[in-house]
Amino acid sequence: MASYADLSLWHATCGDPLLPRRTLDTDLDVDVAIVGAGFTGLWTAYYLAAADPGLRIAVLEREIAGFGASGRNGGWASALFPSSRSKLARLPGSSREAANAQIAAMRASIGEIERVADEEGIDCGFHRGGTVAFARTKAQLARARHEVDVTHAWGDTVDDVRLLSASETTEMAAAAGALGATYTPHCARIHPAKLVRGLAAAVERRGVTIYEQTAVTALAPSLVTTVGGNVRAEYVVRATEGYTPGLPGRRRQVVPVYSLVVATEPLTAATWDEIGMANAPTFTDHRHLIIYGQRTADGRIVFGGRGAPYHFASSVSPEHDRAERVFAELRATLIELFPALREVRYTHTWGGPLGIPRDWMASVGLNRTTGIGWAGGYVGDGVTTTNLAGRTLADLIRQVPSDLVELPWVDHRSRRWEPEPLRWLGVNAGLRAMSLADHEESLTGRPSRIARVMSPLVGGH
Q1: Cα distances (Å, whole numbers) of residue 423 to 8, 50, 416, 453, 454
Q2: Residue 191 and residue 296 in contact, taking contact as beta carbons nearer than 8 Å
């Protein structure tokens, strides 16, 4: 990486010079120290500073704000939560009503992101076009129907999620061979690097200090140790997501799994006429191995997915950001979906780690005894979830009673992952199983037995 602009299409086109802010080079006393200048850390700082301008808040970042997943993701501000409502309802002290409240809070957070972006003048290409999820085989169509039935059984209506016919699907986005699709309006397309960099500037305007290129070497109650000095604080917030295993004693907290992305050149009007997506919905399909795409504000397709391996001992390295085999598979999959892209040029490829907890349950919380707060384990669904986490942490730290601090994910503790080599064997077996499940369905035309067996291990019911 010659410069931070080389990290992704988003960094290259965010309109920010990406020059590092000052590095911490002395000891420091603050009220709140936040480790990580991604969405989680910055949203937390934003809402704390907005509620109490007198708070002394420092954000500590090893690279620059938005260096990690916050600046490299697929640009979906969705209402997706990594665990099902049935799992949320089964958490201690939870209920059906609490699970529905969690999803309602996720949906409301999309509008909150839009509100802040407008208020702070952050032009992040926010466009609420919803999400269309294609069903291109009979097995996928059966899953699509089941998804709609399940969400409606929880109280959703056709205004929240609905099943599209083949013709309705084609009208929305002309994916090859689509038998139908599900559609939800609860998603917006964004330019994530513009949002995260704009948010960093917004928290600075509110008096927060961001220290960049300041590596944190240890995190303890009331104390954050960095390479440049010690930071003493009443509250310490860990907002490190996929980079968490790099902190002492947290190797098994989450597994960093890589998601990789490709971006096309801006497409011609004729190509867009053939593909559709006039209202720029984000898109995916009902296969087991996750894929995700969007029509960008400047007329490209950004398309990503899983498929890269988990690296032994929770290794996170720039070398893992690229896997040519996966990039080739992503390009082939995109052409399979939209044959009109066969001759299109790809201008950017990138990747990065996301954090997966052992039970696939995202969480946010604050230990009153130690003063250490945290949020994470988003499993790739973090753009909107981080906003909810930031508002929740602000309420927890300020000890403000609110509906947010009563949501079922608050103070949830996931158990640790197994030690190596069990972790490496198990995680990669799970990732491989999802690919095999899709292959099985292409051969049999029936729902995958492999996927049914693996579902409880990958966040299923």
Answers
A1: 29, 41, 10, 19, 16
A2: yes
Confidence of residue 446 (pLDDT cuts 50, 70, 90): confident
- Tell me the pLDDT tens digit for each residue of 25-69: 999 999 999 999 999 999 999 999 999 999 999 999 999 999 999
Instruction: Burial-class residue 166 by CB neighbours within 10 Å (0-12, 13-18, 19+).
Output: middle
DSSP states of 92-136: TT--HHHHHHHHHHHHHHHHHHHHHHHHTT-----B---EEEEE-
Question: CA-to-CA distance for 135 and 181, rounded, in angstroms?
Answer: 5
pTM above 0.85, yes or no: yes
Determine the Cα angle at 146 with ends 450 and 167, to 5°.
110
Beta strand pairing call for 230-238 and 255-264 = unpaired
Give yes or no for a contact between 451 and 434, defined as CB atoms under 8 angstroms apart: yes
**What CA–CA distance (Å, rounded) separates 68 from 317?**
11
For residue 241, give the nearest of 224, 221, 258 by alpha carbon.
258
- Residue range 357-369, pLDDT digits in tens: 999 999 999 999 9
**What letter represents residue 443's amino acid?**
L
- CA separation, residue 443 to residues 144, 262, 378, 438, 440 (Å): 19, 28, 33, 9, 5
Residue 315 CB neighbours (<10 A):
14
